Amino acid sequence: VRELDETNNSATAAVTVCYSGVDRLYVDQAATGIADGRSWDDAFTALQDALDVAYSCGGISEIWVTAGVYYPDEGREQEADNPNETFTVADGVALYGGFVGGETVLSERDWETNVTVLSGDLEQNDITNNNGVVADTDDMDGTQSVKVVTLEDVGDDTLIDGFTITAGWGGNGGGLSNDNGTPTLQNLTFRGNVGS
Prior knowledge:
The chain has 196 residues and is mainly beta. It has one helix and 14 strands, in the order βββαβββββββββββ. The protein has one domain (18-195). The strands form four sheets. Strands 3, 4, 5, 7, 8, 10 and 13 form a seven-stranded parallel beta sheet that branches. It starts with a strand and ends with a strand. The mean pLDDT is 92.
């Protein structure tokens, strides 16, 4: 949204649009539609945008994410290369990776083949394998996320399933930080993270 004051000075701000009757959002880096997250064709291209809608709007129970590498500093309201940017999953949301795009039921995904990576390699300059995963922390270079994924006060109906989490560097959980929550974590791989 762009606003002009009485002297024609402008300011812009991002606005989150909530849709009634929508309980699932889609994320696909290759999507070319309107990026509202309501279908594979119109999927968000940045995971953080879907997480922001789920957090702000409520009513979203699932987010389906295609294979690829996703960074927490990418999205409409994110600050590039800021190590404090993190994927924050809202309470009650199930986050699923491992899709190709176009699936209509959860059982069609193959998370082992369609590797979906949440990476803290903010400058995208670490040495990684073909899937974008840091195999050894000695291969990390430059700015990393302090926490790649953050969960705060979430219940066991909050789920993260089918992801590889990599390149986090920070105290109290470089890859994933869980503060006072009981999330369900399954089909996850943690590789190339540093935490104390």
